[in-house]
């Protein structure tokens, strides 16, 4: 019987631990403040921003909301980020992605101070991760590590295959698994023999952005499968990159969609906000 890795439960545990830390900091007169900037009113972004605000409220982190119109210029957004960089009362800055097409995302990410980059997207944060130095880590990959550790799944010495090479998930995920002493292979859309490589994995992490792409013929019997994808199928139901029903009887542990990796992203964002004060 496969272990269903419960991301809701684990993320709740992390948030409860952070709530205690934040209360202790508040007792010392230290208030954590997260500034969240949203440009436009993309429905999915609005849901994410709402969830982040709720998590802040629960843990005791003050959140500042900047809801800007769709036609906000890049210069205006840069000016706001620079103002927040200079504001000593603000510990973390988060600009909700995606941004409207007339704004260059890389420019905005690089404008955020690395000391306030709680999303872990700034090149300095990524560089620190790549050479094993301290810095903020991208929230979704950090959440995957917590899911594995808190489920009692050993990483050291395991063969890990990651399908997907995005800057937000695939690449930092590989670096984090290396840091945990896994042997790591990254696969992507140009990989030859993808099924054969995936089938070597003790831990298979899928972040390819294609619904139900991975079926049981990609998966070694007894492997651990982490599904980072989230989509809506033709019946408007949420599903992942992995065909959950097809692989379930084939694996030792798996994350469901929804309720697996998703809740961990916000929990690790909150963790980064607390780290911004502790580090």
Give the amount of beta strand, in percent.
Answer: 15-25%
Low-confidence stretches: none
Q: So, the CATH homologous superfamily of the largest domain?
A: NAD(P)-binding Rossmann-like Domain
Number of domains: 2
Mean of residue pLDDT values: 96
Strand element count: 11
Specify the CATH class of the largest domain: Alpha Beta
Looking at the structure, the CATH topology of the largest domain is Rossmann fold
Strand-helix topology:
Elements: E1 3-4, H1 7-27, E2 33-39, H2 43-59, E3 62-68, H3 74-86, E4 92-95, H4 105-111, H5 123-130, H6 139-150, E5 159-163, H7 170-179, E6 183-187, H8 194-198, E7 203-206, E8 224-227, E9 231-232, E10 238-239, H9 244-247, E11 253-254, H10 262-278
Parallel strand pairs: 1-11, 2-3, 2-4, 5-6, 5-7, 7-8, 8-11
Antiparallel strand pairs: 9-10
Helix pairs in contact: 1-10, 2-10, 6-7, 6-10
Pick out its properties.
single chain; 279 residues; alpha/beta; Rossmann fold; six-stranded parallel sheet; three-stranded parallel sheet; 10 helices
Structure description:
The structure is a single chain. β9 and β10 (238-239) form a beta hairpin. The chain has helices at 7-27, 43-59, 74-86, 105-111, 123-130, 139-150, 170-179, 194-198, 244-247, 262-278; strands at residues 3-4, 33-39, 62-68, 92-95, 159-163, 183-187, 203-206, 224-227, 231-232, 238-239, 253-254. It has a six-stranded parallel β-sheet. The chain has a three-stranded parallel β-sheet with strand order 3-2-4, sandwiched between helices. The chain has a two-stranded antiparallel ribbon with strand order 9-10. The protein has 279 residues and is an alpha/beta fold. The protein folds into two domains: 29-113, 3-Layer(aba) Sandwich (Rossmann fold); 139-262, Rossmann fold, CATH 3.40.50.720.
């Amino acid at each position: 019987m496969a272990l269903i890795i419960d991301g809701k439960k684990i993320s709740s545990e992390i948030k409860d631990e952070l709530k205690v830390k934040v209360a202790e900091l508040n007792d010392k007169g230290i208030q954590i403040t997260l500034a969240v900037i949203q440009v436009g009113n993309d429905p999915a972004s609005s849901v994410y921003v709402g969830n982040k605000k709720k998590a802040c409220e629960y843990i005791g982190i003050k959140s500042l909301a900047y809801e800007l119109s769709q036609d906000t210029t890049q210069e205006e957004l840069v000016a706001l980020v620079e103002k927040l960089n200079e504001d000593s009362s603000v510990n973390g800055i988060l600009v909700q992605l995606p941004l409207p097409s007339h704004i260059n995302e890389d420019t905005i990410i690089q404008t955020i101070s690395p000391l306030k980059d709680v999303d872990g997207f700034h090149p300095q944060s990524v560089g620190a991760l790549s050479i094993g130095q301290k810095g903020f880590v991208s929230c979704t990959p950090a959440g995957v590590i917590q899911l594995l550790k808190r489920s009692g799944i050993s990483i050291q010495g395991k063969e890990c295959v990651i399908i997907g090479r995005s800057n937000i998930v695939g690449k930092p995920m590989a670096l984090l698994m290396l840091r945990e002493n896994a042997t790591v292979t990254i696969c992507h859309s140009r990989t030859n023999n993808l099924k054969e490589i995936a089938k070597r994995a003790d831990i298979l992490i899928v972040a390819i952005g294609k619904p139900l792409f991975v079926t049981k013929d990609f998966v070694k019997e007894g492997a651990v499968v982490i599904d980072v994808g989230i989509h809506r199928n033709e019946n408007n139901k949420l599903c992942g990159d992995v065909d959950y029903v097809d692989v379930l009887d084939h694996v030792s542990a798996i994350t469901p969609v929804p309720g697996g990796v998703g809740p961990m992203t916000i929990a690790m964002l909150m963790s980064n906000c607390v780290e911004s004060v502790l580090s």
